[in-house]
Amino acid sequence: MLLFTPGPTPVPQNVRNAMSDETMHHRTPEFEAIFEQTRKHLFNLFKSDEVVMLSSSGTGAMEAAVINLCHKTLLNVNSGKFGERFGKIAIAHGLGSVEIKNEWNTPVSVEAVVEAVKANSEIDAIAVQISESAGGLRHPVEELAKAVKKINPNIMIIADGITAVGVEKIDISNIDCLIAGSQKALMLPPGLSILGLSSLAIEKIGAGRGYYLNLASEIKNQKKNTTAYTAATTLIIGLLEVLKTIEKDGGIEKLYETTALRAKAVEASLEALGLHVYPAVPALSMTTIDDENASQIRKVLQEEFAVNVAGGQDHLNGKIFRINQMGLIPVYEMAWVVNSVELALAKLGHRVYDGTANKVFNEIYFKIGK
Ligand SMILES: *Cc1c(COP(=O)(O)O)cnc(C)c1O
Asked: What does UniProt give as the signal peptide span (predicted)?
């Protein structure tokens, strides 16, 4: 079965092999050397002033960011489940909460964020997804961060890049905290999250807040290539292998280029089948199609063509399907996925098969005739 859900994503064979050795003790020079090397690679990927790894799924890093960087009121952008989660975290910790809510296909407007910030001087942090995975949309995070910093540079910008870090280049000039998670673009099993922090964020963190998620104690330890609590040794070994693999494969810039090209080719090939792309501004991390037959299409893809794509949650349950674009995806697998969608539509009697999907995909991906 081809796993094409936008998280979890498949773990490459060499990464699985790297993680299959005996468990290493985390308080050893041997592991500290691995930790140090991994940090170096992460600085290269995040381009931030500090990086911190946590043994938690992505939500742990979201919570760590909120409690350490927001001391008064959090403004969260809600165009889907993950954006909504930031607000729930703020409320759970007794922080003030202001939310800008939109339909799941609609990116937040920079003006709306600016207005909200101007209207409430208690807002000291903003949390937003770069790629909101619920509907596969891209928020204008860099633009909103720039506009907010012009009003007040001390407002912390928390950017959830769980389906963006490793997918596309992110301008972090105005971002104070950039979050990644292991099981999405980083091609690992779940259980590790990473935060890239600005020096302004480190200042605000001060002595830190919370206990397990106290970022001050993690920064202090991780600078010395160790962790406050037991490190997720196996996942960190896997992460180092992933980051080395990306490098061996031509580097991160090449991965960004390939991902963008593949996403474009998939989008065009599915549109050529008459399918409709759901988000107004699609993220590169996934291709999201809204279709009244989404459930049937997914079922045929899975049962007859061995392709596993994700559906939708909540009110989008049965209304969309999402095809992953994150990671080192072999092009022949993606070609099979778009071909399978065309076959499924034919099978369901929605469209006569004529090979359009693969034709369009190949023309764009391989630049045929260009
Ligand atoms: C998956 C995801 C999360 C949550 O991560 P968990 O690892 O499930 O805790 C947060 N934000 C985005 C954008 C995601 O895609």
From this structure: none
Comma-separated ranges of CATH 3.90.1150.10 domains in the chain: 250-369
CATH 3.40.640.10 domain position(s) in the chain: 13-248
Cβ-contact 69, 123 below 8 angstroms? no
CATH number for the domain running over 250-369: 3.90.1150.10
Give the CA angle between residues 178, 181, 183 to the nearest 5°. Answer: 155
Rg (CA), the chain: 21
The pTM assigned to this predicted structure is 0.98
Reference 285, options 268, 260, 249, 308; nearest CA is: 260
Residues recorded for the chain: 370
Pocket test for ligand 1, best of 82, 284, 313 (most atoms within 8 A of CB): 82
User: Cα separation of 71 and 106, whole Å?
Assistant: 29
Side-chain half-sphere CA neighbours of 109 within 13 A = 6
- Is residue 9 lining ligand 1, measured as CB closer than 6 Å? no
The domain 13-248 having CATH identifier 3.40.640.10: the answer here is yes
For 67-120, what is each residue's pLDDT tens digit? Answer: 999 999 999 999 999 999 999 999 999 999 999 999 999 999 999 999 999 999
Distance between Cα 281 and ligand 1 center (Å): 19
> Does 322 appear as a known binding residue?
yes
